[in-house]
Amino acid sequence: MGPGLYLHVPFCLRKCAYCAFFSRPAEPAAVQSWQAGIERELKALPAEFAPETIFIGGGTPTALEPDDLGRLLDGIHNHTDIRNVVEWTCEANPGTLTPEKAVLLRAAGVNRLSIGAQSFDDATLRRLGRMHSAAETSASAALAREAGFEHLGLDLIYGIPGVRGDSFEADVEAALALAPEHVSCYCLEIEDGTPLARAAAAGDLAIDEAEQRRQFEQARRRLGEAGLAAYEISNFARPGCECRHNQLYWSGGDYIGIGPAAHSHWNGVRWGHTAELAGWKRAFEEKLEPAAKARETLVMGLRRTAGWGREEFRKATGFDYDVLRGPEIARLAAEGRLVAEPDRIRLADEALFVSDGVFAELV
């Protein structure tokens, strides 16, 4: 799989109660300085860099005004070799996607829209600090189809305190009614520094892990019945509609991230940018020694439900996974947390919800 390009748009109309990503209001001066930085980085891409996937994330890319969104898309066309691009994704939030922006994105070559639905219950959306309504999500999906998008993804959040299984089940059904090709289901996490973290510290909300697990299993079952197979812990797709860009991350591939807080892995070197505007810079740069990189790749690839084939892993890393972590793999398999076949390993279904504990023992 060829390399990927990620562009971070650090602007939102308002920050959600659970969000710890770097973002800020889309003030004109901030947007202009950000655009200048993006163009500077695009011009500095390696001469041999020709991505197969592009992903515009945030923040809220569709919070940009049409002229600013057009400038970003033009910059990509003018300064990036896009001849090999087969997948181009842009994140969108309901309420910020307009017919003009949808047409602009599609005309530029974007062929996937990922819409941040999160829930289809307006009370739950308010609890999360979202600015949109469920009706706006449905309207955004219709806009996307009218603009010619044949690949639509929806994001859902489960495990929200106070939201029981029947309400989340209704969310899944509402998402399926929009006939998406891709659905991402993420468990709500309480991130440091967020309003939800402050509410948890004050005792105003508590996570029910048993209920979170029930909703996780509920989503896997229902989405699978609807033809969206789980291909990663949190991601479901119709056949052939898996997100290639994210698969690049999970398989240890090369990608370059542009913008504040963006990360990259290119030719064995990894680096990340500071979370600041306008003068973001490299916060760190490191070259992992081969075995350490292989262990990291092992863990990331086990997020995929197919896991790793032995030869596939050898080709990706130069190592046999049993040489790297043979005793740990054998023990985790004996405990029922890994499935170890002669030429393939994967997470056991029972361990998907608690995968971090497995990964900590392998990395």
Mean pLDDT: 93
Strand order of the largest sheet: 7-8-6-5-4-3-2-1-9
Percentage beta strand: 15-25%
Under CATH, the topology of the largest domain can be stated as: pyruvate-formate lyase- activating enzyme
Structural class: alpha/beta
3D structure, described in words:
With 363 residues, the protein is an alpha/beta fold. The protein folds into two domains: 4-249, pyruvate-formate lyase- activating enzyme (Alpha-Beta Horseshoe); 289-363, Arc Repressor Mutant, subunit A. It is 40% helix and 20% strand. The chain is built from 13 helices and 15 strands. The protein has helices spanning 28-43, 66-79, 99-108, 122-128, 134-146, 165-177, 195-201, 209-225, 244-250, 290-301, 310-317, 321-334, 355-362, and strands spanning 4-9, 53-58, 87-92, 112-118, 152-158, 182-187, 229-232, 235-237, 255-258, 263-266, 269-273, 282-286, 308-309, 338-341, 344-347. Strands 7-8-6-5-4-3-2-1-9 form a nine-stranded mixed sheet, with helices on both faces. A three-stranded antiparallel sheet has the order 10-11-12, with no helix packed on it. A hairpin with an 8-residue loop joins β11 (269-273) and β12 (282-286). α1 (28-43) runs parallel beside α2 (66-79), α2 runs parallel beside α3 (99-108) and α6 runs parallel beside α8 (209-225). The longest helix is centred in the middle third of the chain and has 17 residues, at 209-225.
